[in-house]
Amino acid sequence: MAYESDYMPSAGRDKAVTAEQIFEMMKGSDRPAWSAKDVGDYYDVSTPTAKDRLKELDEHGWVETVQVSNVTGYFVPESDNLDLVERHKQSLVHEFTDKFVGLPTAPWTAVHPNDGPAEAGDKVQIRVEGTPDHWRQLMTHAWPNRREKLIYEETTSGETQALISGELYAKPTVPIEHENYPPDYDLELNIGAEYKEVDDRQILIAAGVKNYLVKPCDDAVFLKNVSVDWMSPKGHGQELETVNISDQSFEEMVEEVEEWREENIEERNEYKHADSPEAAEGEQTDREFVEEMLDSNSQEVSEQWVQNLFAPGKLALDDEIVELLATHPNSPLESEEEVRSLVKDGVGTEGGEHTDEQ
């Protein structure tokens, strides 16, 4: 039986759809149940794709199923009272359980070796942002350096932010298996490798740059016993105020940034070192912070990320950081000139630190 009045099919055969989008659509619909084909027609995706997303919802307990002849129907139970916070908590636990959290450059530890290490058997805390199916791992803290929450100025209303924790366990793996490469990513070019036929089969031989990505590791670390320590749900955070360069001089903007940094650095360090007296002996430098972000967040680093990193009120761009961004294998930039130009251009849009003379 068709329900043509319930929806208008979207255009684009291979348009991506998330489990959360399907759940919200089903909650807002008067339709009693949906098959995988129905959902596929609604979003103009293949039936197998729709079925995979519906199975995710079923596994999370967000929907229930009913069998009619040979067709499985999916529906949101009337007693469903899962609010956004609970759904996002469940999604975080589901996604990060058994997730590889080692560094691409050091798969056996979840934090930079200079700050750890954090190996199998240790507990860690991870800062994440995003929404179900699109969580980004921003930073991993060794357990003694864990945070209770993000301070007011660190929150955003655009996405859910959370601090999650879990225990590390080890098993053999190859880090390249856990990277989410974009469709147009040239893997052979970026790791200096090529496919060759050996004994009637194709194998990938890496002999050039970034070949740490394909180096096997017997004790790479994964996460278990995941829990959510703190959460700021989507729509509840505080956006940092943006500054338009046309409204004030660059000098005034710099003064405001420095005032903000002075007012908030003490509170930030208080949270950072609350449970680690030893760590309080030396404050993490901006360069160390950027290096840790690059080491732990390779698939999420973009040019926009770099611009946002040096927006007013955030980090200062110095020569050491410029060199790091120009040489780090996870950086999207390839030269110091490109780094300075990108951050300079960001002053008029997202905001950014300007190191050139005006």
Task: Please work out how many helical segments DSSP would assign.
Answer: 10
Radius of gyration, in Å, reads: 23 Å
Q: What's the overall average pLDDT, rounded?
A: 75
| Strand order, largest beta sheet | 4-3-5-8
In percent, how helical is the residue content? 25-40%
Number of spatially distinct domains: 4
Tell me the total number of β-strands: 8
Seen as an oligomer or otherwise, the chain set is: single chain
Which percent band covers the strand fraction? Answer: 15-25%
**Main sheet record:** 4 strands, antiparallel
Through-space gap between termini = 68 Å
Helix-and-strand structural type: alpha+beta
**SSE series:** HHHEEHEEEHEEEHHHHH
Shape from CA axes? globular
List low-confidence stretches: 1-14, 240-248, 276-282, 347-358
Task: Report what the structure shows.
The protein has 358 residues and is α+β, with helices and mostly antiparallel strands. The protein folds into four domains: 72 residues, Orthogonal Bundle (Arc Repressor Mutant, subunit A), CATH 1.10.10; 116 residues, no CATH class; 32 residues, no CATH class; 119 residues, no CATH class. It has ten helices and eight strands. The strands form three sheets. It has a four-stranded antiparallel β-sheet with strand order 4-3-5-8. Strands 1-2 form a two-stranded antiparallel sheet. Helix 1 crosses helix 3, helix 2 packs across helix 3 and helix 9 packs across helix 10.
What are its keywords?
single chain, 358 residues, alpha+beta, Arc Repressor Mutant, subunit A, 4 domains, four-stranded antiparallel sheet, two-stranded antiparallel sheet, 10 helices, 8 strands, 30% helix, globular, disordered N terminus, disordered C terminus
